[in-house]
């Protein structure tokens, strides 16, 4: 099955700044794909190109099998976009704004619209100029999630929402993909991406540096280990083991990180000192993201 989004070697510069430097990205139909990177990594530039709002300098990008630059009008009837800072028409009510956005797309599911307004606790009779940031965000989310579209492009979509509304958002996005829709989700809320995404791409300096399922990315990263031992452990000896890092020894308590492939060697060495307690945890998405950030900083220095 063709990719919902296929990007190959995408390049875009603004003067001497290379926003995208050969970016590759593949989003499969029916998945929630997390799209992560530090500020300035090229996420927003990529999304603007996918929306047909910006023309790439080189490379290829297709969205739902179409060229976003040449087929913009057609594509905008097949997708919905929610930015992190929504602006709506000040003199329209929230309900009128939702309906107008629906007409610009492939139409709205009226029953879904009503259900989402209730679930997001939105008053659709108020004028846009009276809405808080969170309520403007709700208008955009209701319009997108009730639209008859195949793809959602979400760039910080829950900015301004409280935790209860964030839970509603997560549930609705999962329902959307369960019905065959596809989602590209860019968010600084890494816990949100970790909970929702089927696959994740991490970009840095306009390039894709990591891509895969969370399990795959964890397998290439470090596992946290905490243990207590019957006899003291030499931290230098642990640090010398393959794949072991961040060793700390405080009396009988040992903490460290270890590459998943070398976990067995670490446990064997700890066993020599008599393991009394042991706990290990895979890296969170935040751990993986920060590891990429530290790698970037180390390469700069």
UniProtKB/TrEMBL annotation:
Q: Where is the ABC transporter domain?
A: 5-230
From what superkingdom does this record's organism come? Bacteria
Q: List UniProt keywords, sorted A-Z.
A: Antibiotic resistance, ATP-binding, Nucleotide-binding, Transport
Give the location in the cell.
Cell membrane
Q: How does it sit in the membrane?
A: Peripheral membrane protein
Question: What species was this sequence derived from?
Answer: Intrasporangium chromatireducens Q5-1
One GO BP on record is:
response to antibiotic
What is this protein identified as? ABC transporter ATP-binding protein
MF (Gene Ontology): ATP binding; ATP hydrolysis activity
Bilayer-crossing residues are none
Similarity section? Belongs to the ABC transporter superfamily.
